[in-house]
## 1
Amino acid sequence: MAPMVLGPFPFEFLISALVTILVVVDPVGLVPAFLAVSHGLPEKSRRHVALRACLIATAILAGSALIGDWLLRALSISLPAFRIAGGLLLFSIASEMVFGLRVTRQTEAAEQAIEERVRNIAAFPLAIPLMAGPGAITASVLLSGRSGGDPIKLGLLLAVIAAIMLLCFGVFLIATRLGKLLGSTASMVLSRLLGVLLAALAVQFVIDGVRVAIAG
């Protein structure tokens, strides 16, 4: 029996997945929303909310990566069409980040959730839609489709999702200190830079979708 020969390690896919998921989820940008949601909670409860939110978001994004492509086929939606639509959606999110609208909207959603006395703030608005929102779900499905069914690439995507959620958990644990350390100016500049990067990635998704659609 001939030994199985593995191809080269997909570093480009790993970097693409890492940058895309990191920018879309934006752990540092979630700090104001987390502080607003968890305001007044004791430290133990705050840690519980952070852990629960990260677990829920991980399950949602991992599920999107695993069954998203199958769901598209079941709905007769081609991957190029989803790439184009997903790229436009990601570009919309990027424009909000560049013009400073996303953090404001996240904080307002968090404050509204408190006012309405939502029972489980870990699930809403933290996990959904702030962490595992339409942009992150779209990115997970697009990256899953880009893996071409390669188990190594799919495993890397799941590992990236888990790593980003672990980073979110760490950021939430130090949210109070991080908010004071960064200040409003540094947070604004970082959000703008990440928004420009995400806009470029979104345009690339659209270009890939159009190219495949024309070739097909």
## 2
Amino acid sequence: MMEKKFVLAGVMGWPVEQSRSPVIHNYWIKKHQLNGVYGKFAVKPGSVKDAIRGMPALGIAGSNVTAPHKVEAMQLMDYLDPIAKKMGAINCIVVQPDGSLHGFNNDGFGYIQSLRDVKPNWRADEGPITIIGSGGVSRALLVSLIEEGAQEIRLFNRSRDKADALADEFGGPIKVYNWDERHDAVSDVALLVNATNQGMYNQPELDLRLDQLPKNALVSDTIYIPLETPFLKQARERGNLTVNGLGMLLNQAIPAFKAWFGVTPEITDELRAEIAKTF
């Protein structure tokens, strides 16, 4: 358990006002009657090094890291968790008692657990997996799905060179296809994932037809604003089980909270209701 010492943590990004992480962590702080607070650290590009290196002096226990700082922050760590190193980005900083900075990436853990929250018997080797997108989120998903035993991952990106680079780096079950083949690459999949920002608030919808998608395929979106993207709505209405990005956000917060506050929290219906109020 956390001692009575006040503990300060937060989320660092630019912009950061849209983050729901403070709702999650401050709910848990109140729930466990801890002496601390979780805030928003709006850090402009160009100020990341000063902000991160100043955390020990300010007495900050740690921070989540969101766009666009995940890669730059990784370069500033004194220690990198092997998974984070492989993913090429961090989303969590834990300040050690001696002031050193340890970097982690809990996105993959959060994503896999979000699938199992909806489908407890989910397995990565159930069948082919199609992923749309080759950005930072996709990196985390690829590493985690391969570790979970995925046998075939079909990767699509508008700029094929980015997808090819990921396939070259991670190898294994990843096979890259041309963007114009995406509509046909869902015909026999067990899991379909949108790892782009298409469908996010103020962004265009994901251009993907689902008419060939098996009805028993699990359909996942890493976006949580809105909670149901047009992509997920289309999948749900045709009978597919869907998973939005909120579960990933909630689950990745658990190991971070434990590292900073010394308590392993739980995801409850009450917490989900609190977050729902912010949409």
## 3
Amino acid sequence: MTDLAITANGLRKAYGDKTVLDGIDLSIPAGTVFALLGPNGAGKTTTVRILSTLIAADGGSARVAGHDVATAPDGVRTAIGVTGQFSAVDQLITGEENMLLMADLHHLPKQEGRRTAAELLERFDLTDAAKKPAATYSGGMKRRLDIAMTLVGDPRVIFLDEPTTGLDPRARHTMWQIIRTLVADGVTVFLTTQYLQEADELADRIAVLHDGRIAAQGTPEQLKQLVPGGHIRLRFTDPTAYRTAAGLLREVTRDDDALALRIPSDGTQRALRTLLDHLDDAGIEADELTVHTPDLDDVFFALTADTGPAGDTDQPKENAR
């Protein structure tokens, strides 16, 4: 059985009369990417804060890297790294000095700290900028430095809370590659993001938070199958073939002007093969076939229909810092 890096059972948290988490359960295998999605105020950042021991839950239990977050917080802290949506980089000092400061915080011997800093700066393509003040770095460079600082302690679990907020598309794709490399090295990544494409690209499993509860969770493909609207579109150039196919197939939506048929489908290989076999048996050949499946945007809006757009803050404004 795959080792679990993170488990949570019945986690609850409230701020005054506002319940942010209303009993959530999580099971996250080691060496995977888990993405937590949800609208503004759904509880994403609060979940990260509880699992990283920054705040205490009001109820329930959780374990991270084998340690109970309530009774063994020091064990959790030695096993994790946390990178928030706002960089922890000190912009008044150089990239190298930021790394060495982090090495000191982890009580590494001076020589080992310098070696670790140099290796990570090289790994994240920051060697040429190492002697420059971090204030001169681009947004993408600061993010890379932030994650490099997180890796000084060799964490096995990393919490990335909105790690690509504010980055341009090129820098975002660079960050995605960094995350994939971390997971390939066996690190578990707990990701919160407001970019649904990011979750689709990176996550092995996704959970959607809504009103403090898990509305749904599963692989990206499993979640997409929760939403109706998937279909196969057939287009013909021969009007006779079009009419024959329309009469043969069930539950077809016709577009007589375009000579196109829309057939409901879950988008699976089996459904596509069944349709094609049916057409082949009748001697019908479409000129164009397109498979349309719902994306994570469809899933997100279907599961959180009565709330606003995705955001990055869970606490009421008066509690936010």
## 4
Amino acid sequence: MKKLILTLATVALTALTPARAQKWEHLADTPQMGWSTWNKFAHHIDEQKIVGVIDAIVESGLRDAGYIYVNIDDCWHGKRDADGFIHEHPEKFPHGMKWLADYAHSKGLKLGIYTDCGTQTCAGEPGSLGHEYQDALTYARWGIDYLKEDWCNTPNQNPIGAYQLMSDALRAAGRPILLSLCEWGTAKPWRWARDIGHSWRTTGDIGPFFNKDQGKADQGRRLSVLEIIQRNDTLRAYAGPGHWNDPDMLEVGNGLTENEDRAHFTMWCMMAAPLILGHDVRDMSEATRRIIMNRDMIAIDQDSLGVQGLHYCTEQGLDFWFKPLKGGDWAFTILNPTQEAVTYALNWQDFNLTDEEVSGRSTDFNHTRYTVYNLWSHKREGRTSLKAGIERTLTVPSHDVVSYRLIAPAGKNKH
């Protein structure tokens, strides 16, 4: 009898306990694209700047290329009222965040905002600890579409519980909001965050430098493009539609050379990373515009198969990357991280590989002739060979890439 009573009590308790909320689905079936205030403006933000950026994203064609989120990072905050609800800074955002969200929506864009799991944000503004459901409701009422949640000032907090709490709060608030975890990879969120958020940072903050030596003056506070690639490239098994490894925002247009900007953008696309711009889009060079508007390369990032690229090997100082794509195609990139240009004799038969870890796809160069399409010159460059031998000789400039889409013949591996 005691066993029966205990069983009935357990069933009753289960029935009364609400099921854990799940994140909003289908908000990031491909990696999110947009722009953020932090890399360029840091805490120097206001309503006028954001309106100008919104207008520039539309007028430049960036919106039509897929950059739809305009994200306001740290330092938008005012104070909490007597009931604990957060408000925007009244002088920086005089019309209010709801007005700004409505403006973004009227232009076909979405508005993002920032908070922190702790007592304060990284810049010392009010964090969401103890106010998760209030903040989620506030964001929903404002019309927010994207939330980045940082991990500063979180002593003795469990990241899994903290981020699950905000995820549940966003779901309960009733408005679909993309959740971007910014825990810096310390607690290995790729192992537990798939059902909590839509992307998770895998590294510390990025800086506007390509290699570690260029960032020495930063005293190690931020990571270079190459350091981040090296930390992110082993995590591909955890990424996929709706849940992405996030190697941080883009520094394209913030002081790198054109070669470095091109390589940086290419590798983020190869890694199926969120493409969040970080430069001043109101005043950008033609070179920057060409790089971030390269629709052929964006298509690699946004490919619906949703597989992060594979760092296959390193030869002669060059890194060789492959990314399986929908329909049997492959993206193939050679990255030169060295200080000198490298000339390489390419033999396709050296790259017969099977992506056993993630996609199960094989390049099958000895049976398949792919059309070779250059993703930066936008020209076809013949076809791959079925026989061993030097196919072509390539020179990859320092801190640059050579990148191709290998187009499979009709009917080959179409899935």
